[in-house]
Predict the structure.
Amino acid sequence: MTVRIGVIGTGMIGQDHIRRLTHVLAGGEVVAVTDTDAARAKEVAGNLKAAKACGTGQEVIDDPNVDAVLVTSWGPSHEEYVTAAIKAGKFVFCEKPLATTEQACLNILEAEVAHGKRLVQVGFMRRYDHAYRALKRTIESGEIGAPLMMTSGHRNPSVPGHYTSDMAIVDTAVHDIDIARWLLDDEISETLVIKPRQNARGGELHDPLMTILRMRGGALVNIETSVNIEYGYDIRGEIVGETGVATIAESNAVVVKTKGMFSGRVPEDWRERFIRAYDVELQEWLDATSKGTVQGPSTWDGYAATVATDAGLVALKSGAWAPVTMRDKPSLYA
Ligand code: NAP
């Protein structure tokens, strides 16, 4: 079965997902698109075989030819579209964040619980990266014993001028927060954000930042966000267990040795580093959707990430540990 998809938001990631759905993956076809920039939506639709440009996101959701919805508009609009898709009983893939406030996440969660069946997947693509999946398998095998500490490094060569210190937590560390919950299979109990000496390349920006998570089971996670580090886009990850250590390997395919030195490529940006993860993520979503199920990161995961980043913002301002307080987990997400 071909899943007919409606896309809300044809900006950068929306167009990239449309490209992979159209040219890379199997089992999906984009049949409707919309964007607040109507001309952009029309142009994107015009480049597809059988897609129409709709005036609004609600029109996309209501279209009887649309089986499933991809929400790639900007964060504050996610709640409206994800909730509307749930009300229409349609599967919806929502790029992170699920929503930008805790209350908006709870509204989505309540709508899905009332519907009684999972429909939502959130775009935490690291869970589909081969290296993170290998790390997860290593932890689950018991090879390194119970995980005690995790170090996560999130390094960007540079960021655009509008990037703020808050974004280092909400847009950057959020990926490390989700992957820590997933790898350690635990929730976060509190968080602390420490400001080291500032990188002069970042101007006023608090860069780097060290975000510490204390998990409910006691494990500690240390997230470095360095967003002006020039040398490349470098994702680091290491778990220290009771009897061993597991570390994500370098991501380059070739190591060059010459003149007494060895070297390898560091990815230029997140697109290069995670291109395969995005492909696997959307292919698995298509496969599950065509079978009438959803398996990836859930509304609960999206809610947990937003609660944790909200606490991170409190900790950034206060310099003290901030509690991460969540409602009880509905059985739908057990
Ligand atoms: P973007 O380039 O600004 O694209 C967003 C698009 O949505 C723009 O064309 C925008 O139109 C449109 N839009 C905004 N509000 C809308 C609404 N209410 N209805 C319909 N269209 C609307 O941003 P992006 O980088 O693609 O990011 C989109 C989302 O994906 C964000 O939530 C972002 O956090 C997420 N994202 C996730 C990853 C990841 O690693 N998983 C990576 C990148 C982005 P205007 O330009 O006219 O406002």
The pocket of NAP is lined by residues 8-14, 34-37, 40, 57, 72-75, 77, 95-96, 123, 125 (CB under 6 Å). The longest strand covers residues 147-155. Residues 165 and 206 are 5 Å apart (CA to CA). The chain has nine helices and 15 strands.
